[in-house]
Design goal:
Number of strands: 24
Low-confidence stretches: 432-498
Largest sheet: 5 strands, mixed, barrel
Shape: globular
Strand order of the largest sheet: 1-2-3-5-4
CATH class of the largest domain: Mainly Beta
Structural class: alpha+beta
Helix content: 10-25%
Distance between the termini: 125 Å
Radius of gyration: 36 Å
Strand content: 35-45%
Mean pLDDT: 78
Length: about 500
C-alpha cells in the first residue's frame, strides 16, 4: 500500500492516504463563549520528520474524538488538503489537512513504521522580527530555563507567570504562560541538582516591550521539560556549564496589588476626575473623527505614514508594519461624561480579534466603524487611567486607558458602602460648637458635675465664720463638660456665674 509523504500533499484532490503519528492534539475553544469548541486540532509527523497541521471541524468532533490519541500512529485516507490561511496557525506551511465525513483513520501497531514521537518548528532569529505582534503564524521556542516568576493577576482577572530563558540561539528572553498553562507548570519540581532544565513551549505569539522579546502561550500551546529527544540532549550538554539554580522573578509593584485593590484604587467619579487611577463608566459613543486604527513600526511601535508606497522608520523600510487599534470612546456616569483612548492591547482583549483582521474586511473608501467595535456601546467597565502632562498641563479631558476590568456587583456594593461611611465620618469631623450651642452628643464623651451656687462665689467666704443653724437649700445646676476641655470650660462657667 502506497502512502504520500506530508511534504508532497497538495490541494488537487481529497483522496490522499498518509501514514503519520499524532505528535500533538488539542481542542481549540472560544474563551468569549465560555470555552465553546471550535475544532479539534493536531500536528502530524511522518517518517521523514515532515510536519502538517490537521483540523476536525466542530460538527465532526464527536465522530472522530474517540478514534484519535496523541502519540499514536495512524493510517489515514480520504483527507482534504487546503491552503493554510488565517491567524494562529501552529505551523509555517503552505497546506493543512481537513477531516471529512468520509475520512477513515486506522490505528497502527507501534512497530509498523519508525516515526519520531515529537516534532517542532523552533524559531530562527531571522523569523522573530517578521512575527512580532503578528498572530498569523505561531512559534515554537526552546531554551534553558533560568528564572521563574510568581503567578500574577492582570487585566480582567487573567493569571500569568513569567519564565526567563536563554534560547537555543543564546538570546535572553521571557516566556509568559497564561491561564491553564500556569497549572501545568509546577516550579517546585525543577531542582537545581537535576539541571540544566530545557523547556519547550509550542505555538506562542511573539511580542517586544522596551526592546525585550517575549513569547506568550496560547490556547494551542504545549509545554515540555527535558524532553527525551536528541536535540534537547544536545542543549543540555551545551548549557551544562551554566548555573542550574533557578532565579526567582519578582513581580513589578503594579502587579503586587490584588484585582480588587486595582479596581478601587483612588476611585472617583468623572466630575471629581483629577489625579485619578480608576473610574467606572458606560461607553455611549465611539468617536471616529480620528479613525480607529493606525499603522506602526514593528521595531519601535511608533506611528508611521506611507511615503511613495513604503513605510519608513528607524532609518529603514518597514517590510511588515503593524496595524494597531486606537479607539476613542465617550463614557458617562451619573456625574458627567469624558473621553477615553483605548489602545491595541485593550481592544484586542475586548473584541477577541486584531485590527489587521478588521482592516482586511474593509472595502475601498470604507470609513464606517466595523460592527465589532459598535458592540462596545452600552457596556460598562472600570478603567485604569494613565494621566500625563497632556491632561495636567494642557487641561485636555482625554485619558489613556492602561487596563480595563468588568465591574463585580458585590465588590461595587462594598466599595459604595465604604465610601458612604467615609463621607459621614468626614462630615462628623468638621462639626464644631459655635455660638455657645451644645454640640451633638455624638461628638464625644461628656460628664456632668454639680456645682453649688455658694461655691461659685469664690472669695466671699470669711475664715472662722459660724454658719447659722437654719437650713439653707442650695441651688444647683447641671454643667456639661467635654473631657478634652474640662479645665477651660469649668473656668469659663465660673466666670459667667459671677
Amino acid at each position: 500500500m502506497e502512502y504520500t509523504m506530508l511534504k508532497d500533499l497538495n490541494d488537487t484532490h481529497d483522496t490522499w492516504r498518509i501514514r503519520v503519528r499524532i505528535c500533538r492534539l488539542w481542542d481549540s475553544t472560544n474563551p468569549q463563549k465560555n470555552g465553546e469548541l471550535i475544532s479539534i486540532d493536531m500536528i502530524f509527523i511522518d517518517e521523514k520528520e515532515n510536519l502538517m497541521h490537521a483540523t476536525i471541524k466542530k460538527h465532526l468532533a464527536s465522530r472522530f474524538r474517540h478514534l484519535l490519541q496523541e502519540g499514536s500512529t495512524y493510517s489515514i485516507k480520504n483527507l482534504q488538503v487546503v491552503k493554510a490561511t488565517g491567524d494562529y496557525r501552529p505551523l509555517s506551511s503552505e497546506f493543512k489537512c481537513i477531516f471529512l465525513a468520509t475520512t477513515s483513520p486506522k490505528k497502527l501497531q507501534e512497530d509498523t513504521v519508525q516515526i519520531p514521537r515529537h516534532g517542532f518548528q523552533f524559531v530562527m532569529p531571522d523569523d522573530i522580527e517578521s512575527r512580532l505582534n503578528d498572530p498569523a503564524i505561531l512559534t515554537d521556542v526552546v531554551g534553558l530555563l533560568s528564572g521563574i516568576g510568581e503567578v500574577d493577576i492582570v487585566g480582567n482577572n487573567w493569571k500569568k507567570r513569567d519564565l526567563h530563558i536563554i534560547t537555543n540561539h543564546s538570546v535572553n528572553a521571557t516566556i509568559t504562560l497564561w491561564g491553564k498553562h500556569i497549572e501545568q507548570f509546577d516550579p517546585k519540581i525543577y531542582k537545581e541538582e537535576d539541571g540544566p532544565h530545557i523547556i519547550i513551549v509550542t505555538s506562542t505569539t511573539i511580542k517586544k516591550f522596551k526592546g525585550a522579546v517575549s513569547f506568550n502561550s496560547t490556547n494551542n500551546s504545549k509545554i515540555y521539560m527535558n524532553l527525551d529527544i536528541p536535540y534537547v540532549m544536545t542543549l543540555r550538554e551545551r548549557f551544562a556549564r551554566h548555573s542550574t539554580k533557578l532565579k526567582f522573578i519578582e513581580s513589578s509593584n503594579s502587579n503586587k496589588y490584588t484585582l480588587e485593590e486595582k479596581m478601587f484604587f483612588h476611585r472617583m467619579s468623572i466630575k471629581e476626575l483629577e489625579y485619578v487611577v480608576t473610574v467606572r463608566g458606560e461607553i455611549f459613543e465611539i468617536d471616529n473623527q480620528f479613525g480607529w486604527y493606525y499603522v506602526a513600526c514593528k521595531s519601535c511601535g511608533k506611528k508611521v505614514e506611507a511615503e511613495d508606497g513604503d513605510y519608513k522608520c528607524c532609518n529603514k523600510i518597514i517590510d511588515y508594519p503593524l496595524v494597531m487599534f486606537k479607539v476613542h470612546v465617550h463614557i458617562k456616569d451619573h456625574t458627567g461624561t469624558t473621553t477615553l483612548t483605548l489602545f491595541n492591547n485593550i481592544v484586542e482583549r475586548l473584541l477577541d480579534t486584531s485590527a489587521k483582521k478588521l482592516v482586511n474586511k474593509l472595502t475601498s473608501g470604507d470609513s464606517d466603524l466595523p460592527k465589532e467595535l459598535n458592540t462596545l456601546i452600552g457596556k460598562e467597565f472600570i478603567y485604569r487611567l494613565r494621566l500625563n502632562h497632556y491632561n495636567f498641563k494642557q487641561g485636555y479631558a482625554n485619558y489613556t486607558v492602561s487596563e480595563i476590568y468588568e465591574p463585580r456587583k458585590c465588590l461595587e456594593h462594598e466599595y459604595e458602602s465604604k465610601k458612604a461611611l467615609e463621607i459621614r465620618a468626614n462630615v462628623k469631623d468638621k462639626l464644631t460648637c459655635n455660638d455657645g450651642m451644645e454640640p451633638p452628643r455624638e461628638c464625644g464623651k461628656r460628664k456632668a458635675s454639680m456645682i453649688d451656687d455658694a461655691e461659685e462665689s469664690g472669695g466671699n467666704k470669711v475664715e472662722g465664720e459660724v454658719k447659722p443653724t437654719v437650713e439653707v437649700r442650695k441651688r444647683r445646676k447641671m454643667v456639661v463638660l467635654d473631657d478634652d476641655d474640662d479645665d477651660d470650660d469649668a473656668a469659663n462657667d465660673n466666670g459667667d456665674a459671677n
